[in-house]
């Protein structure tokens, strides 16, 4: 019985969740120095009409900031899951994914949860979860077309190299119900049949080429961070960062520290 209670806590994380767990289901807040990038918001508005969007770029490229900003302004219902090291455990990962989906479709994980908990039945759990999400697709009368929902999964690179996780994710992502669109954020290409998904028109990609700050965006970010930065320093810092968001931030902090010195 004690085991069952412990399992229930893991299975119904959204109902008996710690605040740490709940915080993983919220998109991070935009920082004070946030610079709105309309071209990328528009790009995402379009990309998320595909079943799967991957946002792949190195650390500090601005992936999380962009998706958090997009999620804050889109009218499309959006669920969010930030992964961490604890999600390298398949049961934990699927509990998190289910909890994120349940913020949009309460009860959708009721039948799959016991399977995610039991060793060796992750793939069965995914099959049942897909069935139950699909049932929501058709509605009681079998006629309703649900409006789209976007699920954003951040920091996938932390878990994507685990074999069972990669397999079950691929199984899930290749059989999504038509209303569910997924955005995966990672520092590396996810282990998915990318060519096949691309060829079928099911995949959209946002990479560093798009994410890198163009001159105007870099200047706006630097002058927001250090309003007193002289124009030549703005240009030099922007050049050095080569469009890398974290580089701009670090450059601005260095200038601010230098200005603060007596
Ligand atoms: N549009 C923006 N406006 C202002 N600052 C930004 C913007 N985009 C990114 N940054 C800043 O750049 C830094 C890196 O951004 P972010 O954390 O989004 O990168 P990331 O690609 O998600 O990195 P990681 O792979 O480490 O998670 C952060 O300090 C963030 O505040
Ligand atoms: Mg990030």
UniProtKB/TrEMBL annotation:
InterPro entries: AAA+_ATPase, P-loop_NTPase. SMART domains: AAA (SM00382). Residues 49-209 form the AAA+ ATPase domain. This is LuxR family transcriptional regulator. It comes from Jiangella rhizosphaerae.
């Amino acid at each position: 019985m004690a085991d069952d209670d412990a399992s229930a806590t893991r299975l119904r994380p959204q109902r008996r969740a710690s605040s740490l767990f709940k915080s993983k289901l919220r998109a991070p807040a935009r920082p004070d120095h946030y610079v709105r990038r309309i071209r990328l918001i528009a790009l995402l508005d379009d990309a998320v009409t595909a079943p799967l969007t991957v946002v792949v770029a190195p650390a500090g490229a601005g992936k999380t900031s962009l998706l958090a900003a997009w999620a804050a302004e889109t009218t499309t219902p959006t669920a969010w899951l930030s992964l961490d090291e604890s999600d390298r455990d398949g049961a934990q990962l699927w509990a998190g994914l289910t909890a994120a989906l349940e913020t949009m479709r309460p009860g959708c994980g009721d039948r799959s949860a016991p399977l995610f908990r039991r060793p060796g039945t992750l793939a069965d759990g995914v099959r049942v979860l897909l069935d139950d999400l699909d049932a929501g697709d058709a509605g009681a009368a079998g006629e309703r077309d649900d409006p789209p929902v976007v699920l954003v999964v951040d920091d996938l690179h932390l878990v994507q190299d685990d074999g069972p996780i990669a397999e079950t994710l691929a199984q899930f992502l290749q059989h999504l119900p038509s209303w569910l669109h997924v955005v995966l954020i990672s520092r590396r290409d996810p282990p998915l049949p990318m060519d096949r998904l691309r060829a079928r028109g099911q995949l959209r990609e946002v990479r560093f080429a798009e994410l890198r700050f163009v001159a105007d965006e870099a200047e706006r970010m630097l002058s927001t961070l250090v309003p007193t930065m002289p124009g030549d320093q703005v240009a030099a810092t922007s050049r050095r960062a080569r469009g890398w968001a974290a580089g701009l931030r670090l450059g601005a902090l260095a200038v601010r520290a230098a200005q603060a010195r007596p």
